[in-house]
Amino acid sequence: MTSDATPSNLDGQSVLILEDQVLIALDIEDMVLDLGAGVCWVVSGAVTALTLLETKRPDLALLDFNLGGRETSEGVADRLMDLHVPFVFLTGYGDGLVVPGRFGGIPIASKPVTKATLLTKIALAQDRFRSERMV
Where are the transmembrane segments (predicted)? Predict the structure, then answer.
């Protein structure tokens, strides 16, 4: 699949959602389930996400980068990279989000995010991780 070929749904995939704002997390979960995800694990903190990753391996993750000003999702992103799980950063900072260089090429979606934008960013993330496996 190329980045131009946006999937029409998530075909039963499992999705980790890391978002510290409850209403936003519920909105994203509803959107992902509407797009066909099979299961969503919604967590509000990095420690909880890392604990979940000890026993579960999602097909995809959506990570709020800044978690309530107290922490970021960088450690979770590092673990997902180790596991070769595609992910998208979500941010309320729009184009102002600057991520560390090791996350270059990771798609970033501004909140509030639409289904169409989410699907496009997910396709980009999946393509990126798929191409890394081929190298």
Answer: 35-53
The model's pLDDT over 102-127, given as tens digits with 9 standing for 90+, comes to: 998 999 999 999 999 999 999 999 99
**Token pair of 109 as six digits:** 């979606």
Lowest mean pLDDT among 11-25, 44-58, 68-82, 89-103: 89-103
Q: Identify the CA nearest to 59 among candidates 27, 87, 32.
A: 87
For domain 14-134, which CATH number applies: 3.40.1190.20, 3.40.50.2300, 3.40.50.10190, 3.30.1300.10?
3.40.50.2300
- Per-residue pLDDT for 101 more than 80? yes
